[in-house]
Amino acid sequence: MEHHFKGKTVLLTGASSGIGQDLALLLAGWGSKLVLVARRADKLADLAAACEAAGAEVLVCAADVSDRARMAEVARLALERFGFVDIAIANAGVGGLNPARHFDLDMHQQTFAINVLGTANTLVPFIPSMLAAGQGQLVGISSLAAFRGLPNAASYSSSKAAQARMLESWRVDLRPYGVAVSCIHPGFVVSPMTDHDAFTMPFMVKTRASSLIIARAIARRRAVTLYPWPMRLLTVFNRLLPCWLYDRLMPRISGQGEDVQPRMF
User: Fold this and answer.
1) What is the pLDDT of residues 32-49, one digit of tens each?
2) Less packed terminus of the chain by CB within 10 Å, N or C?
């Protein structure tokens, strides 16, 4: 698997912590050239130093993925520096709870701006160069929450569903031109986003184990990946539940309090 990434240029958003940070370190050790994107320049600088120490050539770009103009500039800088980006990974995202009784429209808009528009802002600028080359891969890190609306998580679940359907449509459109599109749906992964006790998080995956699963899915150009396997089975089971049962069962097993307030992770 390591040989697949050796010498390839990989752009990765959300690189300053969690899944993105660990994936960057993994790929650096495998010989990838990296374009690291996140909002926190200081965290990116520390990560870049660690990746360079592992032998990687690194371009650092501080940016907010919801800023379309800035992400277009990031793509221009990446292509100018490396000539071609083989793999673009839209990993940046936010989670949160936004219960209907206290629904926060500002939070809803921000969630979509990052999770959906941020994915488009990240990946779309690379489509022309990949089409011209007849190769390349676009990757979006979605969530198992994309498959059904979770309790008190309308903003997160719907944004991840929209992200997944966008990637699926692109996959169909770009496949004839040699450009692969992969959508990866993690369950709960050890990261700052899951460092809370707002709800039950079963079958938590360690960060490095998650990175290896993501890397394997990218190397095999898998269209869709769901992990870990127990959560994949639960997701399939949840999708089969009739609405009357789902509506009664999910609130009881979510582990959430009675008066949930809007909160971003």
Assistant:
1) 999 999 999 999 999 999
2) N
